[in-house]
Specification:
- The protein has 747 residues and is of the alpha/beta class.
- The chain folds into 4 domains: 5-57, 2-Layer Sandwich (Phosphorylase Kinase, domain 1), CATH 3.30.200.210; 66-132 and 345-564, Rossmann fold (3-Layer(aba) Sandwich), CATH 3.40.50.740; 141-327 and 571-594, Dimethylsulfoxide Reductase, domain 2 (3-Layer(aba) Sandwich), CATH 3.40.228.10; 604-731, Barwin-like endoglucanases.
């Protein structure tokens, strides 16, 4: 064995982008620790990042394509045989049912892959089939509000917590998530620093999360009522003369319309429904207005509720009305080194250009609600989905009404997947193309920098070479897109397709592709990243600025490059038709009558919310023993008063049920949750027949999405409702077997 080597890389798992030092001995990763000198993370690292070596070496991780044989068993295959079978499946389905019978399901793991994330658009442009993405079980309400307010779905203003004095957190738990649509390496440490400089952090949440525990105040709120609370805050701002637009006044339309719609939502009128006392609402409104710099942050708990778009919109409305927007310490826009969203033209807001076949749900900004996928597969009739392509996702675990989707997938005539594992979803596939680990592909987290309030960049080349016959994911996507487009494998020219895709990017950006192609002939995702760097604010613009930045110069800085904190970016960031912030989009206001029904609706006795843990990343890292062992985490959190009322004992078993499904789960009694609310973690129940993830099967747990109704959506965004779900809770019968295993047919 040779001497150990040490390599600087970045963790790719979340927006924290932590720098890591990787020790390699005899092609084995033997240790990963935080890189103390990383210009961005400065020594921060969560437990997940330290296990990336185990993920790379996991014996269950796929190293070869798999193809289902005549006996229904997934068998190793050559790449050529896998592509041939994919062509046979896709062309056969199209011949029998038309291209409209195909769909694609994408996931957030695809967004964390340099290869997949840069080429999903290329696949979509070639394939032109319905896309069911992870956006509609995550942040689609935020995309809708930002598209309408600022002109771009991905121009999302994020909290500048490094310079704020008042940090308001709603529906977010960065202690566990590390930050979501918020790129910051150490949120918990910064909360302490906010306190040290005389500021405050206030968490409004049904659960006293770990973030709430280290903050200055926890304000419990009834799940699904955040929009009512925020409207009441706006009401106070207007009624008490606290609206202070400052320099924003020249850049905002619709202030009067917001004043009019919030007039009826006084703190007193919503207090009984939201659970937030009127005096608390008034104090918070005054505290935000009085702060030198306040940052209002709303995340997934706001998005995945019945009125997700209204709640997501209102966090920005509160910030703008108080002048806490586009200034240091407030909500600000990123200024990325490689600004894809600034270079490419804004995508206009669309709704209803297409509708789903079964329930007539509209497309919103190009996304079909993921909650509709199961019914589109299992409901017979013209336009029924017969073929599915999945990439970087596990919807049998992550989608609402998971049991129905699991039962529907075997009805497909063909399914093709790109993934690291044979998981709960891909076990149904006919062809699986293996994905590379993070250490087998180049890494530039272009995604996370659009949520970072420092302008920086890091790039790392692959640590390990893939096998000589390996086909990278970006080429798999181009080939599958071309096959769906009608081409045969033997006539597909990957280099030509890639050049055409890259040329289209240049054309969309308003530049001549010919000289750019000549200057950057090497195909693949790194060419696209280099293109974004060069056209960015510090770039060389292909020679126009000789001292400017290029990918090669970024490579020369393994610790990363930092160009300083965020700057004010209005009005340049605005691409609305008016050139101003549209504070009161009519599309969003049209949902207020539905919200008003909350004021007279009877409250369910018990509602369910989800939770996450720092050692869990959705469903796809449950096969790593260090992350799942120890004290059981898949438990039902319930308040002592509810436990007594319902006859539940700590560590006993409870049945949680509704019309969608039922699970039996161990009880964990805690006063860190609002009475009338129970909580289950998401991403568990990984013991489905046919899975090839042995650790996950040993630590299966139960799945909250067995209880998430597929027909419950935030109506104007199409986002699934995963929080505030009515359930019943009762002691489990002694003979009941917890449903940690599902019997599912496979082809």
């Amino acid at each position: 064995m040779g001497e150990p080597t040490h390599h600087l890389r970045s963790c790719h798992l979340c927006e924290a982008m932590c720098g890591i030092e990787v020790r390699v001995e005899d092609v084995q990763i033997t240790r990963i620790r935080a890189n103390q000198d990383d210009v961005w993370s400065k020594g921060h690292l969560c437990p997940k990042g330290a296990t990336l070596g185990r993920l790379h070496h996991d014996p269950d991780r796929l190293r070869n394509p798999l193809v289902r044989d005549a006996n229904g068993v997934l068998q190793p295959a050559t790449w050529d045989d896998a592509f041939a079978r994919a062509e046979e499946i896709l062309h056969g389905i199209i011949a029998r049912h038309g291209r409209g019978s195909l769909a694609v399901r994408t996931g957030n793991a695809a967004g964390r892959s340099t290869s997949l994330s840069r080429y999903i658009a290329a696949f979509s442009g070639l394939a032109k089939i319905a896309r069911y993405g992870s956006s509609t079980v995550d942040q689609q309400p935020k995309n809708v509000s930002c598209n309408l307010m600022y002109g771009n779905a991905w121009k999302i203003a994020v909290p500048d917590i490094a310079r704020t004095d008042y940090f308001l957190v709603m529906g977010a738990n960065p202690a566990e998530s590390m930050g979501s649509i918020l790129a910051f390496p150490d949120v918990l440490g910064e909360i302490e620093r906010i306190r040290e400089r005389g500021g405050r952090t206030v968490v409004i949440d049904p659960v006293r999360t770990r973030t709430a525990k280290i903050s200055d105040e926890w304000v419990p709120i009834v799940p699904g009522t955040d929009a009512l609370f925020l409207l009441a805050v706006c009401n106070v701002l207007f009624a008490d003369g606290l609206v202070r637009l400052g320099r924003l006044a020249d850049h905002v339309n619709g202030v009067e319309a917001v004043r009019d719609v919030c007039a009826e939502f006084t703190p007193e009128s919503v207090a009984a429904i939201s659970g937030v006392p009127a005096v608390t609402t008034r104090r918070i409104a005054h505290d935000i207005a009085a702060a030198r710099a306040a940052a209002v942050y709303g995340r997934i708990g706001l998005c995945t509720q019945e009125f997700g778009t209204l709640a997501s919109w209102l966090t920005d409305v509160v910030a703008i009305l108080t002048g806490h927007f586009d200034e240091p310490g407030t909500l600000m826009f990123a200024n990325p080194v490689a600004p894809f969203m600034d270079i490419l033209p804004s995508r206009p807001f669309t709704v209803g250009t297409t509708h789903t076949r079964v329930r007539n749900a509209p497309e919103v900004i190009g996304e079909v609600p993921a909650a509709c996928l199961a019914e589109e597969i299992d409901t017979p009739g013209e336009g029924q989905i017969k073929g599915l392509i999945t990439m970087g996702c596990n919807p049998v675990i992550s989608a609402p009404d998971s049991g129905r989707l699991d039962a529907a997938l075997p009805l497909l005539e063909g399914m093709i997947s790109i993934d690291l594992y044979v998981n709960a979803t891909t076990r149904h596939a006919d062809v699986i193309f293996p994905a590379t680990s993070a250490f087998e592909q180049p890494y530039s987290d272009i995604w996370s920098w659009i949520f970072a309030l420092r302008s920086g960049i890091k790039h790392h080349d692959p640590l390990f070479e893939s096998p000589s016959d390996w086909v990278p994911e970006w080429q798999v996507l181009l080939r599958l897109g071309a096959i769906v487009n009608g081409m045969r494998n033997d006539e597909i020219d990957i280099a030509a397709l890639d050049d055409a895709f890259f040329s289209n990017l240049c054309t969309y950006a308003g530049i001549d592709p010919a000289p750019v192609l000549a200057a950057a002939p090497t195909p693949g995702p790194e060419r696209i990243i280099d293109w974004a760097i060069r056209l960015g604010p510090w770039g060389d613009r292909y020679g126009e600025r000789p001292d400017g930045l290029t990918m090669d110069k970024v490579r020369e800085a393994p610790q990363g490059l930092d160009f300083g904190p965020a700057i004010s970016r209005l009005p340049e960031m605005l691409t609305t038709a008016s050139g101003k912030i549209e504070l009161a989009p009519e599309f969003i206001l049209s949902d207020l009558p539905r919200l008003r029904t909350l004021l007279t609706r009877s409250r369910p006795e018990v509602v369910l919310v989800s939770r996450r843990h720092a050692r869990s990343l959705n469903s796809w890292m449950h096969n790593l023993l260090p992350l799942v062992k120890g004290k059981p985490r898949c438990t039902l959190h319930i308040h002592p008063t509810d436990a007594t009322r319902l006859g539940l004992a700590d560590a006993g078993m409870a049945t949680v049920a509704n019309a969608t499904g039922s699970v039996d789960v161990p009880v964990e009694i805690t006063d860190d949750i609002l009475p009338g609310v129970v909580s289950l973690p998401h991403g568990w129940s990984q013991d489905h027949d046919g899975m090839q993830m042995e650790v996950s099967r040993q630590y299966a747990g139960v799945l909250n999405n067995y209880l998430s109704p597929g027909d419950l959506l935030d109506e104007i965004s199409g986002n699934a409702v995963l929080n505030g779900i009515p359930v019943t809770v009762s002691p489990a019968l002694a003979t009941t077997v917890p449903p940690t295993r599902l019997e599912g047919s496979t082809r």
